[in-house]
Amino acid sequence: MISLLANRNYARLFAAQVVALLGTGLLTVGLGLLAYDLAGARAGVVLGTAYTIKMVAYVGLSPLAQAWAQRLPRKAVLIGADALRGGVALCLPFVSDLWQVYVLIFVLQAASATFTPAYQAVLPDILPEERDYTRALSLSRMAYDLENLLSPALAGLLLAVLSYHWLFVGTFAGFVVSTLLVALSAIPALGRAAAARPFRERLSRGLRIYLATPRLRGLLSLNLAAAAVGAFVLVNTVVLVRAGLGGGETDLAIAMAAFGAGSMAAALVLPRLLDHLSDRRVMMAGARGLAAVALGAGAVLWLDGLPGWIVFLLTWSIFGFLYSSVLTPSGRLLRRSAHAEDRPAVFAAQFALSHACWLGTYPLAGWAGEALGMGPALMLLAAVAGLGLIAAARLWPANLPDAPEHTHPDLPDDHPHLRAHGGRRHAHPFVIDDEHHVWPTHG
C-alpha cells in the first residue's frame, strides 16, 4: 500500500485527508470542553444536538452541494470547502452562546458534506487501476482509525500546556495545510455533460443511479447493518466501561482503541483478500459475523453481565474488524456503478444515505441502552443488522452478472451505442446512464 505514495497527486490528497482528520479530532475534543464551559451539566444535551445537526447536514445537504458544485472546477470546490471549515474553526474560540455553536457546526458540516464526497469521487480518477484504488480505500480506513487513536493523545498534550481554545487553532491549521496540499494536486476535470444538465437532474441523478443499481441497494442495506452495531459501540462504550466495569477515562480510550485496532487489521488484510474474493462475498461475510457476534455478546450481557476486561477488549476488536470488512470495499462498488462524470453524484448519494442509517441507529442505541439495558439493546441492534443482511441478500443476488445481456428497443437503429456494441441485443459492463434506465433483471 505504501507504494501508492509514489503517485504524487495521490500522496498530496492522502496527506490532506490525514491532516484534516487530525484537525477534526482536535475539534471534537475542543467542542466537548466548549459545551461544558457554556452549559455545565447539560453539556451532553448540547453535544447531542450538535451531532444531530451534523447528521442532518450530511443527509440533507450532500446531494444539494454536489449538484451545485458540478458546474465548478473540482479543485476549487475542495479548496473552498476546506477554507470554509478552517474559518469556522477559527470562529469557535470566540463564541459566547449556544446558538452560535449550533450555527457554526451547521456551516462546518455543510462544508464537510461538500468536501468528503467530492474528495472520494476524485480518487478513482487519480488511481484508475482497481488494485491501486482498493489499497487507497484501505489506507483511508486506516487514516480514520489512526485519527481516533492519535487525536485524543495530541489533544491531551496540547491541553497540558494550553487552554482548550487552542485546539480550535490546531483545527484551523489542519484545514489550512489540507487546503495547500489540495491546491498543489492535479485533479482531473469532470466531463462537460454532467455540468450541462439542469439542476433538478443533477440533484436527483446520483440517487436515481444508486437506487436503480442492485449492488448499491445491497450496499445501503449493509450500511444499515454496520451502522446498527457501530452505533451501539460509539454510543454505549462509555457507559459499559465507566459504569459497568468501573474504568476511567484511560480505560475508555483503550476500549475505543481496541475497536480501531480491529478495523485497522481488516484494512491491512482486505487488499489481498479482495484480489481473490468478490466484494459481495467479503462484505456479506463481515455483516453476518457482525450480526452474529452482536447477538451473542448481547445475550451474554443480558444473562451473565459484563465479561472480563480482556474478553471485552477482544470483543470490541472483533466488532472493529467485521465493521471495517463491511464498509471498506464500498468505494469499489461505487466506482464500478457509474461513469466518471456521474461518480460525484453517486458518492454524494452514498454519503447521504449511509449517514441516514446512522441518523436512525444513533438515537436507537442510546434509547435502547437506557430503557432496556445494555444486553437487550445490543440484541435489538443485532436484529436490525440482521434485517439489513437479509435485505442485502435479496437486493444484491449472488449470481448477478456485471455485464448482463440486454436489448434497447427504445433506441433508433443508427444510435452510436448500438453501433459501438454490435447491435440491438448485446452485453457490456452495465451501469445506469442515459441509455440504460433500469437494470435488465429488475424491470
Can you give keywords for this protein?
Growth Hormone, Chain: A, 2 strands, mainly alpha, 443 residues, 1% strand
Blueprint of the fold:
Elements: H1 8-39, H2 43-69, H3 74-91, H4 98-126, H5 130-159, H6 165-183, H7 192-196, H8 199-212, H9 214-244, H10 249-274, H11 279-304, H12 309-327, H13 330-336, H14 343-371, H15 374-395, E1 405-407, H16 416-421, E2 425-427
Antiparallel strand pairs: 1-2
Architecture overview:
The protein is mostly helical. The chain folds into two domains: 1-189, MFS general substrate transporter like domains (Growth Hormone, Chain: A); 199-396, MFS general substrate transporter like domains (Growth Hormone, Chain: A). It has 16 helices and two strands. Strands 1-2 form a two-stranded antiparallel sheet. Helix 9 (214-244) runs antiparallel to helix 12, helix 9 (214-244) packs antiparallel against helix 15 (374-395) and helix 11 packs antiparallel against helix 12. It is a multi-pass membrane protein. InterPro entries: MFS, MFS_trans_sf. Keywords: Cell membrane, Membrane, Transmembrane, Transmembrane helix.
